Amino acid sequence: MSRKIIVLDTTLRDGEQVPGAKLNVQQKVEFAQQLKRLQVDIIEAGFPASSAGDFQAVQEIARSVGDTVSITALARAVKSDIDAVYNSIKLAQNPLIHIVLGTSDIHVDKKFNRSKDAVLEMGVEAVKYAKTLLPHVQYSTEDASRSEFEYLWKTIEAVVKAGATMINVPDTVGYAVPDEFGEMIRKLNERLKNLDDSVILSVHCHNDLGLATANTLAAVKNGADKVEVTINGLGERAGNTSLEEVIMALKVRENSFQCHTNIKTTELLRTSRLLTYLTGLDVQVNKAITGDNAFAHSSGIHQDGLLKDKQVYEIMSPEEVGAESMELILTARSGRHAFKNAVEKLGFDTSDAAEFEVLFDKFLTLADGKKEVYDHDVFYLVTNHRTLDVKDSHLYELDSFQVITNNQSPTATVSLKKGSETFVGSAVGDGPIDALYTVIKNLVGQDVHLKDYKINSLSRGKEAIGRVNIRIEYQGNIYSGRAMDTDIIKASALAFLNGINAALLDTAAQESPTPERSYS
Ligand code: KIV
Ligand code: ZN
């Protein structure tokens, strides 16, 4: 019989730690709602002890999607972190406390400077404390793949006896190779099943050697019942195991793995695109499953074969991962019904009539400028509206702008609004965008540095929407901002302002109770 593999998505915790990928609370909730549609089993929503903003985001996610999806969040093996996790996830139907503590010599010596026995005891005490709060506790043996095996097992045995219900084995630095990692999981699984066969064995891999998917699959073959993954493989350094790769490997090669998951694969592409949009971090075009070219066939021999029978060159269909084969093209005359249909087909809820009217107005404006509106455009219109239209009197809004460019002194004049205040100014620059960004920087009076500016066009046609992604540095942190518009100068101004607003919001939320703010 096919074994069910539990899928924990950690995009909002491990993935979100990538510099510049920080999302605001509203964006995190929007993404968590999409993870729910994707039918992941567990969402790791954040690291609540790291900041007040993270705590609030985890709490909102527990409240808004924790009715059907299990919610977890990360704690170090200390009481205050465990309390923060408990208080942020307790409203979910099925909350899970996740505790992490290193087991490798290098972690024990360099991070804790304690004896191995003392570190093990810290873990046991943490689990015992967590169990007084909730029945489900996961324990992660950080840097397991570089740990001495017998000490790793001794730790697992002790924390299971203390009450841990899931054991997660991380390849924290992406050091493992599939045969070794698979063998380690086989041995741990054998001992764990003998100790207590109700405890779930899980793996969490990083991609430093490009082996995260291979290592995760090797672990599944050797008995792991749970995988920790992120959408697009997002994560620090080379990232985490990619959810879509593991899921489709298990599905397409079910004959080899004899396993299945609960994931609704037709939501994969949409989830990937939403994340790309929210973080501004693009997926490489040849990325398996979700890259733009993943299902494109350009060679004549392949195209000929495909026309005869798709299976000649396709091991899975684009439709299986959510790439629509039929697309309706909307115009300004399409009307409410057709627009509503398109929005719903993309998986968005349209039950809020007032919000739908605002979206419809935006659609008409877009259709007037762009003539033909594709699924792609509707998707960005809705996500843009739901995640970036935050009305907050502490944030800057673009009121009006004028940019004049030539080869001598490009000039920009901008008017910004913040609450009831208006700020107007002009500046010259090396080019139109430099002039625009210089005047905005002067008006907000903040020391921000532009680190990266990217523009590309969405969908097809000469009226295509321009999407601008920027990354800025502010007070030593990296923030990203993005915007889209048929006018690329306006999109550039909005993206820069969104980045500045994200930095200001984050700075305001950073009453960080602990110095450490990330965990890989
Ligand atoms: O990579 C890692 O070790 C982690 C743990 C917190 C599971 O992210
Ligand atoms: Zn990690």
TrEMBL record:
It is an enzyme of class 2 (transferase). Residues 397-520 are annotated as: Regulatory domain. Transmembrane segments: none annotated. GO terms for cellular component: cytoplasm. Its EC number is 2.3.3.13. InterPro entries: 2-IPM_HCS-like, 2-isopropylmalate_synth_dimer, AIPM/Hcit_synth_CS, Aldolase_TIM, LeuA/HCS_post-cat, LeuA_allosteric_dom_sf, LeuA_bact_synth, PYR_CT. Its cofactor is Mn(2+). It catalyses: 3-methyl-2-oxobutanoate + acetyl-CoA + H2O = (2S)-2-isopropylmalate + CoA + H(+). Residues 5-269 form the Pyruvate carboxyltransferase domain. GO terms for biological process: L-leucine biosynthetic process. Mn(2+) binds at D14, H204, H206, N240. One of its GO terms (molecular function) is manganese ion binding. Keywords: Acyltransferase, Amino-acid biosynthesis, Branched-chain amino acid biosynthesis, Cytoplasm, Leucine biosynthesis, Manganese, Metal-binding, Transferase. Pathway: Amino-acid biosynthesis; L-leucine biosynthesis; L-leucine from 3-methyl-2-oxobutanoate: step 1/4. Catalyzes the condensation of the acetyl group of acetyl-CoA with 3-methyl-2-oxobutanoate (2-ketoisovalerate) to form 3-carboxy-3-hydroxy-4-methylpentanoate (2-isopropylmalate). Homodimer. Belongs to the alpha-IPM synthase/homocitrate synthase family. LeuA type 1 subfamily. This is 2-isopropylmalate synthase. It comes from Brevibacillus panacihumi.
